[in-house]
Amino acid sequence: MPKVRVTPIIGLPQFNGWSQVVESPPHSSVKAVLSVAIEGNQAGNVGRDIANFFSAQVIQTLEEFHSLLEEVINQAIENEVRILCAAGFFAGDHCAYATFNGAVLLRRSDKIGTILSSGNQLKLITGQVSTQDVVVFSTLPSARFFSEIEIKFTQGYDVDTIVTSVVPGLHAEENSSLSSLAFVTFDDTQSEPVHLNHTAVVSQPIREKSSSQKYSFSKTVQTNSPDISGKDSPQKPTESHAETSSEPFSVQVPQSDSDEGHTTFEEKQMTASISSDTEAVVDSLTASLEELITQPETKVIDIGEIISKFISKIGAVFALFFSLLSRVGKKVLPIVKKFGSVSISKIRATVTTSEGGASKAASMKTMLVETGSTFKSLLPNRDVYIETSNSKKLRNIRLAVLSISILVVLGVVAFILLSKRTAERESAQSAVAPFVERVKSAEQLAESDPVSARNDVQSVLREVEDLQSQYEADSIGFEIISTERAKIEALYSDISGLDALQELPIFYDLRLVSSDFVASKVLMDGTKLFFFDTEQKTAISLETTSKKAAKQTIPVEAFVDAALLGGNPLVLTDNGIGRAIFTDEGLDYNEVIADGDSNRLATLLATYDPYLYVVNPEKRNIYRYAETEDGFSDPIGWIQEIARGLEFSSISSIAIDGDVWLGTKSGGIYKFTRGRVQDFEIRGLQVPFESTVLVHTSDASDKLYILEAQKNRIVVLQKNGDFIQEISNTSLGSVTDIVVNDSGTSLFAISGSVLFKIDL
Q1: CA 50, CA 34: separation in Å to the nearest integer?
Q2: DSSP category for residue 702
Q3: Distance, CA of 14 to CA of 511 (rounded, Å)
Q4: Is the pLDDT of residue 152 over 60?
Q5: Does residue 570 belong to any structural domain of this protein?
Q6: CB-based contact 478:486 (threshold 8 Å)
Q7: Torsion angle, CA of 91/96/100/105, rounded to 10 degrees?
Q8: What is the mean pLDDT of residues 255-279?
């Protein structure tokens, strides 16, 4: 399955407008992405609830994806807000895209265009993913940027560049709270394959349930919802559809009125009749017993179902028995009464007398014939055998023996199955016991050595997963091991250091100071923050306690980078280095280092009082200046030994705490001491760095803070390389720089004009 990477762009929230990009749980085998916006009262609260609900769901099939979207829409309706969304579902090389007041843009090879859009209705299409695809999920308000995005793609720009160019325009709008864009790309790296359940999506109206409802198995998916925003909908709900195809997506698919291709699943009721043939019932019982005794051991047996089946058949035997007694009683009683009216003594006298024997014999014959006819009329049209008292007793004994035999057989079978289940339970408990003990030891170790504890629990988890696969045919053992596995996963989640934030808290919006300000760099001195817009060559200072802000223009031709020295920013330009001093009256800017070979074409600037470091890829070196009373000393080449594999052109960040830390565009982190490279190895990080990283630290901190925007995360490490924490959120994908306060309790991240604050 190609790895799915999501880069979000969201608008600035308002009281009645809120937007976000939400993903399925981390490390899920199937990926789901939702670009969503909420409009209405308490939009932020409702939106966060919906985002939390979506991100907590683990889905595996298209039907579950469709049901999840319906539930999200229903939640919005119940809270009397308007929802706008576009969503994607990725499983292996298969995918599904859906919109509700949203749109989807697809770039495949040299083709690009909108493949799906809808108003106040849910539309869904399915297809296959190419690793070269770029998919953009958008709410309707932000879909107006599609034309700009198409032009950028046509001109050959990559996703990161396009995102950077779209953010300022989106944030510059008067109301961008309903704008949400999710750029989805696919890495060539293959993870564990996922098999998609191709069961088609069941179409049903939202919140319409009935016990006698018939479900139509169809390629059509339609969900119409009333517009509850208080405004007239710009588009009347029309019938929508989804298509399933192995080909790339088609924009329009005609809707057929015929029922071809549809299969209706109706509720069916199973009825059982009681046979009047005793032998048939007994044969059925015998066959069922033989089936039970001879079935394979690997078959999962439901004891309740077996006992229920046999009890129902025994009931049939007794029902037959009492039915026969009732039927015979009803037929025989009139006959007995008929015969009772005849005097036995009279018959005996008639038969034995010699007088008038012929005539009386004829009379008796006539009476017997009439009685026989009456008897025959009372019986059903089949032979009837009159039982003697002995035969009736014998039959009752046989029925009793049969019933007792069946009960004995059932008891024996139940005992055997119960014994088997007990043995299976004991076997599973014995197999999992060593892992339980190892987990307890790791839990105790977590306080003193969290890295080792994580590794131990992770190792146990892998072994328990293997053990669980061995018990797939054993329902009891599988359940026991699944329970223990869930406990181990919960413990690992507690000590793993993985912190997936549903939403980043906004600390300040720089548009309150300058409507078109887009920060690319942030510095911190005590409680004061400095933001720099390198394109407009402007800076904003912000007091974090009072939130008092001021904007200043930096009088330079080209702004490259900035760093703090002595509480004031030093600015690296293409024509030397200057110092910017913020005052109440304005900005004092003076050049402190003239243009020279050491700083010409330099890319990065860093300080460690009283030293200034300049990264110069052209010279393949880092130059150091020392500040004195008379200014700055001449530069010296600081690097004494070049690290193996380090390309100066790939250096993306520099941080200094006495040692020099370099981050690269390929995810590498290098440590230098006195100009020489030092061994540095990261331990305990599940997913290694593979893209551009920005490293932040200081001499007052014992931690490294690494931003990897392409993976939407900030990683915290000990300076010996041990993993501590990973903070993830889709909004981190557009963050350009981070700083941490002196106490190490708060991290500030800047994205365009929005400043986030994360408690550590």
Answers
A1: 10
A2: S
A3: 14
A4: yes
A5: no
A6: no
A7: 110
A8: 37
- Model's pTM, two decimal places? 0.49
What phi and psi values does residue 747 have, to the nearest 5 degrees? -120, 135
Residue 688 has pLDDT above 80, yes or no: yes
| Claim to verify: residue 116 and residue 257 sit in the same structural domain | yes
Interval 636-685: pLDDT, tens: 999 988 888 889 999 999 999 999 999 999 999 999 999 999 999 998 88
What CATH code is carried by the domain that includes residue 183?
Answer: 3.60.40.10
Residue 711, sorted as left (phi over 0), alpha (psi -120 to 50) or beta, turns out to be: alpha
Q: List Cα–Cα distances, 648 to 60, 562, 651, 653, in angstroms.
A: 45, 19, 5, 11
DSSP per position, 176-204 = -TT-EEEEEEEEEEE-S----B-PPPEE-
Percent of the chain with pLDDT over 90: 44
Kindly report the number of other CB atoms within 10 A of residue 322's CB atom: 9
Domain identity same for 78 and 197: yes
Same domain, 433 and 383: no
Q: Are residues 61 and 147 in the same domain?
A: yes
Q: 45-71 pLDDT, tens per residue?
A: 999 999 999 998 888 899 999 999 999
Within this chain, do residues 222 and 308 fall inside the same structural domain, yes or no? no
* Count: domains in the chain: 3
Residues 6+ apart with CB under 8 A from 502: 22, 48, 51, 52, 55, 729
Quick check: is 167 in a domain?
yes
Write the CA distances from 225 to 44, 75, 470, integer angstroms.
Answer: 21, 12, 47
For the cut 90, the answer to whether the pLDDT of residue 760 exceeds it is no
